[in-house]
């Protein structure tokens, strides 16, 4: 996995954070992150573009994703993403199946999910506290998709890196990556943007302390 460049202001320098939480998100240029993988992934709200990422997949982009998961030792998932993964990955082969089936899976849900997938457990009702405990228990925790969960993590600033794959389309409808969870936040680009021949761009950001500064460009 690509490592973050040390910086004295990065949130991962906090003493209480034993590990890191990485948000892995695919989005359009208008930052829609709903249902990139397939038509039935999340049709809520009448979303009609499920599977929008598939035509834009490229071998180079697949290698980027695979590299991003090296070193992962736990998954943190929302209920919908967990159910999709639990129905699929236990029956597959390959590096992603091997990784996902082996590591602990932590599920954020207000209901009672079926946790038959080996290594799965449900987080407690105090989600921020439960997520901090997960981060202290592991070195690298990946949050995949799970846009509702992501809103909580953004609002609480409970993440250390944001890996955003932007794709060269706009949809004008659908759930956004930055929705109700967005709060004033400073981020730092960890690596130069990495583009694929299909036009998708990987942006890796690290969380910084503080809130955005303001100024006046009309003076001086």
From TrEMBL:
InterPro entries: DHFR-like_dom_sf, RibDG_C. One of its GO terms (biological process) is riboflavin biosynthetic process. SUPFAM superfamilies: Dihydrofolate reductase-like. Gene3D superfamilies: Dihydrofolate Reductase, subunit A (3.40.430.10). Residues 25-190 form the Bacterial bifunctional deaminase-reductase C-terminal domain. Coiled coil: none annotated. Residues 32-53 are annotated as: Disordered. This is Dihydrofolate reductase. It comes from Klenkia marina.
């Amino acid at each position: 996995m690509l490592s973050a460049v040390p910086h004295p202001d990065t949130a991962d320098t906090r003493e209480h954070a034993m590990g890191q939480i990485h948000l892995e998100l695919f989005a359009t240029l208008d930052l829609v992150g709903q249902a990139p993988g397939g038509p039935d992934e999340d049709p809520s709200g009448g979303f009609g573009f499920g599977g929008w990422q598939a035509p834009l997949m490229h071998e180079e982009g697949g290698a980027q994703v695979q590299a991003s998961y090296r070193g992962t030792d736990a998954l943190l998932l929302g209920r919908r993403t967990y159910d999709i993964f639990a129905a699929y990955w236990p029956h597959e082969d390959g590096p992603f199946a091997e990784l996902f089936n082996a590591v602990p899976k932590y599920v954020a849900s207000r209901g009672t999910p079926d946790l038959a997938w080996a290594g799965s457990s449900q987080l407690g009702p105090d989600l921020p506290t439960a997520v901090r405990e997960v981060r202290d228990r592991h070195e690298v925790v990946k949050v995949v998709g799970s846009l509702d969960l992501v809103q909580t993590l953004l609002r609480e600033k409970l993440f250390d890196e944001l890996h955003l794959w932007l794709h060269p389309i706009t949809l004008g409808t659908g759930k956004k990556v930055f929705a109700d969870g967005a709060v004033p936040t400073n981020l730092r680009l960890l690596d130069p943007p990495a583009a694929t021949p299909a036009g998708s761009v990987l942006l890796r950001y690290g969380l910084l302390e503080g809130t955005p500064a303001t100024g006046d460009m009309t003076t001086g």
